[in-house]
Each structure stands twice: as structure tokens, then as C-alpha cells.
Write a structure and sequence with these properties.
Layout: E1 10-14, H1 20-39, H2 50-59, E2 64-69, E3 72-82, E4 85-93, H3 102-116, E5 121-126, H4 131-139, E6 143-154, E7 170-173, H5 179-193, H6 200-209, E8 212-219, E9 222-230, E10 240-248, H7 255-271, E11 276-282, H8 286-294, E12 298-309, E13 319-322
Parallel strand pairs: 4-5, 10-11
Antiparallel strand pairs: 1-2, 2-3, 3-4, 5-12, 6-11, 6-12, 7-8, 8-9, 9-10, 10-13
Helix pairs in contact: 2-6, 5-6, 7-8
């Protein structure tokens, strides 16, 4: 897609491998400027890793876009498709080129891409404190949906006495399950918490790029839940891990099942040498908040999820942890 401005001679195009270093630098400058401008913090935000960007580009090659002005890449956006659910982020523009319409062009192109892909839900997640950004998205037709929590927990440096596994539950890892069966289970569990939602491509590409591991929760040999645990560095020098996705079948979505799967996710992160765990989910999910608080998680921040199209059902009683943070 070609979009031009007389002043900037702007071209919005598909990102390619030759853009990665420029995109990493744009992210560093844009986020460092944001923290300085919005929060009065002198903070040098680390660059995202090449692995992070290559993962996104492989997963959605036509949904990773850059804005080019006079031969120079000055902005970027990444799209993420989960079945009929699409979201975009991050959106980044060089500080020297902000307030010139580049962000709007990138966002418009991202939305058009997700519409072409047939997404019935389209949105994003952002920090509510960034009034400029929230106003930008609202001006483009996005409306605030619900707040999300970011919870975190420090992981122990050494193993403590491990509680016994429940008699009625067991763990399987992705490599221990036939891939077709694993992806079919992920697809089935995704749609159990939201029609049209499908995390199977996210899981498949995560395993291809070595971002972490997928854990499957079994009861009577049936897969009733899964957790996608990120243990790779999304940015330079990061020692964090995250539960990127977690879904448990609503028919088996009790406190015991969630506690067990979260504990196994933490152990996976510790095995990979990670020092902290991050989790995101809707603030109205009281079951998740109660279970995670009992395990020592505390609130680090909140985001607001905004929707351009569609609706996300309120499922306060199910286990569904998901992050729209790029």
C-alpha cells in the first residue's frame, strides 16, 4: 500500500529483514521519548531483540509495516491475528517525525490489513496515562473496553520443597504431544472462552522461534488447558518471563486447576533462568486475580484495551489470561 504526503513523501510498506535494525532503533528512541515526555523519567529504553521482530514478521509478514520518508524508515506497526481476533502494537514513530500524521497512516493501514483478514474483533492495548495516545486511538474510532492488570512476581533463586502433583491432573509439554493434536487442542480451548478466537498460530510460531514452551494440563488423559510461557528476551538485557497465554476449559476452570498450571509455568521460567514472571488479564476476572494474588503476584500497572470493531465477552469465572502488549 502506497500512501503519500507532499511534505513527507510518505510510503507505508511491508517490513523486510533489511529494516530490522532501523525498527529496533525507532523503538528505543520512541519509547525513551515517551517516558521522558509523559512521565518525566530519564530512561533509556532498551531495544527490542532481533528475535522478537523476526518472530512477528514470520507470524504476520503482511501485517508488519513501516513508514518510509525520503528513503528513511521513520515508523512501524505490528499486527497480530488470533483467528477472528486482531490487534496491533506496538506503534512507533521517531520523535522527530511525530505529530505529522505518520502514526495515523500506520494505524489505518494496520486496521485495513486486519479487516482483509476477516477479523470480527479489532483493537489494541495502551497505557491509560498516555492521554495523547488514547486520544489518537479514540479519534480513529477506537473506544475503551476494559482495563487490564499487569501483575508480576519475583521467582525464587533456588528451589523450595515442591508440592506433590494433584492425583487427578498431569502435565504434558509441547514436544511430548503430536503437533497436530497439540494445535487442535489449543484451537478448541481458545474457542471455548470466546467464539472465533484461535491461539494455535501463535503457539505454532512461538515454538518455531523458540520463545519458550507450551504446557498442557491433562485430566483423565484429556487436554483441558494450556499455558504459553515466554522465556526469551523480548528486549535487550531482560531477565523477565511471562505467561503470554493461558486458557482452561470453562468446565474445568477451578482454582486448583489454575494454581497448578501457574505453578508449572513458573517452574518452566525458573528452569530457563528467568528472574521474574509477568501476567496480563482483564481486571474483571476475579478468579484469576484471586488465584494469582494467593501465589504472591502484585499489581505493577494497568492498561486499557480499546476496540475498533467487535466485542469481547465478559468471562469473570473462567481462566483466560492474555496479553495484547507487543
Amino acid at each position: 500500500m502506497r500512501l503519500f504526503s507532499r511534505r513527507l513523501n510518505l510510503l507505508v510498506r511491508r517490513m523486510d529483514a533489511g529494516d530490522i535494525e532501523e525498527v529496533r532503533e525507532i523503538g528505543r528512541k520512541a519509547w525513551s521519548d515517551l517516558y521522558s515526555r509523559e512521565f518525566q523519567q530519564t530512561l533509556e529504553v532498551p531495544r527490542r531483540t532481533r528475535q522478537n521482530i523476526a518472530f512477528y514478521m514470520d507470524k504476520e509478514p503482511d501485517g508488519c509495516l513501516v513508514a518510509e520518508s525520503n528513503g528513511r524508515v521513520v515508523g512501524d506497526v505490528f499486527c497480530h491475528i488470533w483467528g477472528k481476533v486482531g490487534w496491533f502494537g506496538p506503534v512507533e514513530v521517531l520523535p522527530t517525525h511525530q505529530n505529522s500524521g505518520i502514526g495515523k497512516r500506520l494505524i489505518g493501514s494496520a486496521m485495513e490489513f486486519m479487516e482483509r483478514r476477516g477479523c470480527s474483533v479489532i483493537g489494541l492495548e495502551t497505557m491509560p496515562e498516555t492521554v495523547k495516545n488514547v486520544s489518537l486511538y479514540a479519534g480513529l474510532g477506537c473506544v475503551p473496553d476494559r482495563m487490564t492488570y499487569l501483575l508480576e512476581k519475583g521467582l525464587a533463586d533456588r528451589w523450595h520443597a515442591r508440592p506433590p502433583d494433584p492425583d487427578d491432573m498431569a502435565l504434558s509439554r509441547y514436544r511430548e504431544v503430536d503437533e497436530a493434536d497439540a494445535l487442535a487442542a489449543v484451537s478448541r480451548l481458545s474457542s471455548s472462552v470466546m467464539p472465533g478466537l484461535d491461539y494455535s498460530a501463535e503457539v505454532m510460531y512461538s515454538m518455531k522461534h523458540g520463545t519458550g514452551d507450551v504446557l498442557f494440563l491433562r485430566k483423565s488423559e484429556e487436554i483441558v488447558g494450556f499455558s504459553l510461557v515466554y522465556t526469551y528476551n523480548t528486549s535487550e538485557g531482560s531477565g523477565n518471563s511471562s505467561i503470554r497465554l493461558m486458557v482452561i476449559d470453562p468446565a474445568h476452570s477451578g482454582h486448583r486447576e489454575m494454581d497448578y498450571l501457574v505453578r508449572l509455568s513458573e517452574e518452566t521460567a525458573m528452569e530457563a533462568g528467568r528472574s521474574r514472571m509477568h501476567v496480563r488479564f482483564y481486571t474483571g476476572n476475579y478468579r484469576a486475580f484471586s488465584a494469582l494474588s494467593a501465589r504472591g503476584y502484585t499489581i505493577k500497572g494497568t492498561n486499557v484495551r480499546m476496540l475498533y470493531r467487535g466485542k469481547i465477552p465478559e468471562n469473570e469465572a473462567v481462566c483466560h489470561l492474555t496479553s495484547w502488549a507487543g
